[in-house]
Amino acid sequence: MKNTSLISELIGKNHGRYAAAKASLWEYCKLINPKFYKESRDYLKQLCTALQALAEGRIIKTEGGFCIYGRHMELPDNADVCKKIILNMPPRHGKSYTLTLFAQWLFGVDTDSKIITVSYNETLAGRFSGNVRDGIEATRIDKGITVFGDIFPGTKIKQGDSARQLWSLEGKYFSYLGTGFGGTITGIGCNVGIIDDPIKNAEEANNEAVLEKQWSWYTDTFLSRIEEGGIQIINMTRWSTKDICGRLLGCEGASDWFVMSFPACLDEKNGIMLCDELLSFESYMDKKSKTSREIFLANYMQQPVDVEGRLYESFKTYTDLPEHFTEICAYCDTADTGSDYLCMIAFGIYNKEAYVLDVLYTQLPMEVTEKAAARLLEENNVNLARIEANSGGRGFARNVRALLKTNRCVVKSFTNTKNKQSRILTQSSWVSNHIYYPENWKDRFPEYWKAMVTYQRRGKNKHDDAADATTGAAETVQLIWRS
Fold first, then answer.
1. Which tens digits make up the pLDDT trace of 382-408?
2. Domains in the chain, please, with CATH?
3. Is the pTM of the predicted complex or chain greater than 0.85?
């Protein structure tokens, strides 16, 4: 009885603080863990403010980006409400922890919430789920510590619902699922979908097959579980331009995503850190000196590994073509397998430089590409077409030759016996310095452009067809002006 009276007295004294925590995620976080959520850590306050605004539909798309409206502000008519947020923060700065508290707070505010969280694997999924569930079930053992039940006494886990990663609140059929990336979530929908650090390390970030598999699962499985009007949160280190964040920010719907990116160091010249208490400038510089540049930039500065590890650092472009070319050539690398690309590049040669005129980059079958290749040669007045004879290239060259309606173009097939990767690496500097692309080549040849700007010096490139054909074009120019 004495203990009950003491708890009642404490609740009475803290009534204002509890009311504030119900109304504000930031106040809730401060009450649950005041040592970590300090007013001096402004980036955490910004994070909490954005997450709550996302849940309450107060992030509005504007012409210049996004605007977070206050809780008591009237939204404009026909407001375009943002439902998607990307979070990029350095390690040990509280991003995943804040999301677990966000999930707890959502259940306290609205017991009808249905949340699915996705982590790298089942182990981490269990840990994330456990943190959410344990926080809701926490029992007060110290009068100086606030627990979830003090603030939201009416929200409880359903009795007998013992599964650690799939459970419900009292009176609900389903409330929460935590799963590993690629896991089964069939038959369950949510109004809050959270993806938390799906990539384990740099090795995976350089493996296109892994990234492709994750993207397929995101588009084919995860998105189908988000109910109409639901929100998405993707929290991850920016490992790669081909990771989920990179793909989302590189597609047509990029403007739908509100991005919060926090580098560990705000000003290296003056030693200004995001949070000195969590990572001092001295520790930051020590890590920088001992960690590979690519990994360091990804982990601490949110710069993708493949941006730093790209083979081609830059490309030259042109707005106007030379008046006359000494030669107009084409180089073609036919598809080795059904999943490979055929890549044919037409280019003019002037003053020992190559000017790209047209590109055919496709996975369509040979019966289609043969006609397309012949048309490319005719339309660009190509004099010499070199086609690799490997993997059916000889037959492809013969058929293209037969389809041509002009005798101006000489079509030659040849067998390339040199190591492909060695050729690509050796010629990479020449490609960057002596091949000129149309100024709008990103729009004219989008798939080819993407393949070239993301091609990695190290790691597993899913396709090397664009780089191989471009290398062949470089070799062709050199062969001609040396002869």
1. 999 999 887 678 899 999 999 999 889
2. 2-69+79-307 (3.40.50.300), 316-482 (3.30.420.280)
3. no
